[in-house]
Amino acid sequence: IMLHSTLALSLLLIAVTSNLAMAIKKEKRTPQTLSRGWGDEITWVQTYEEGLYQAKKSNKPLMVIHHLEDCQYCQALKKAFAENEEIQEMAQNNFIMLNLMHETTDKNLSPDGQYVPRIMFVDPSLTVRADITGRYSNRLYTYEPQDMMFLIENMKKALRLIQTEL
């Protein structure tokens, strides 16, 4: 009987341990999928609705990145974005972050068209900031890899607006 219960306990321990290992593995993998390469240390929300809720709750601006997997401009921007320490740090600490590979129903997020890549900011009062734009007049919310300093300035602008307006 002693041997039997020891065996049962061992099997139970093995089952629990392997389940735990699987749970830990899953836990590690989750940010990878949501980050889609934009920054694995960043906490990403899954949907626009979740982003709005978190922005309001935390009083942080929401940064929405629209992109597509097979778009070379998106890939180039993603690389520059992921490699920029200042952007990554601000994104981790001061923003609610969302990257989307599909359009939302919110027309305010495509004021000048549904092109990619585009990066838009939504403040905690849930207003899409049409006043935080990139450098190009034909695609107001697009950024190129060489525009990272410009994006940093716009991130700072989004943070300043919260302090002054809300």
UniProtKB/TrEMBL annotation:
- Protein name, per record: AGR3 protein
Coiled-coil zones: none
List, alphabetically, the InterPro entries matched: AGR/TXD (IPR051099), Thioredoxin-like_sf (IPR036249)
Give GO cellular component annotations, separated by semicolons: endoplasmic reticulum
Q: Which domain of life is it from?
A: Eukaryota
Please give the Gene Ontology molecular function terms for this protein.
dystroglycan binding
Family of the protein in this entry: Belongs to the AGR family.
Would the keyword Signal be found if you checked this record's keyword annotation? yes
